[in-house]
Amino acid sequence: MGINAIRGAITARKNERAEIISSTVELLSAIMKKNRLVGDELIFILFTATEDLTAEFPAAAVREIGLDDVPVICARELSIENSLPRTIRLLMLVNAESVKEELVHVYLREAKKLRHDLTGKDVG
To answer: Which end of the chain is least crowded, N or C, by CB within 10 Å?
Structure first.
């Protein structure tokens, strides 16, 4: 098994607890499915959120889907002029059979705009 990092992002439709949780669950579920991951393969998840998301920690979604043993942390995304609003990003470290070239980084909703370098590749 090898240790690899998977990235992803999603935009929340509004700054409400339920929306932040459901958006983060959607992102986590897509990453887990597209990379054929199970909970035991996750080492940790780092979440960031833009400053306009204040109603809930994105990390709370990890517990919602039963990943109780995965260490998580949240941080504030840098406030950059003209950055994409209401964005949740994650960096997930995994211990999985997949090699780096097989990993799928998932960008959903408006967050697809963040990865122009992945145009034409599977980004979610």
So the answer is: N
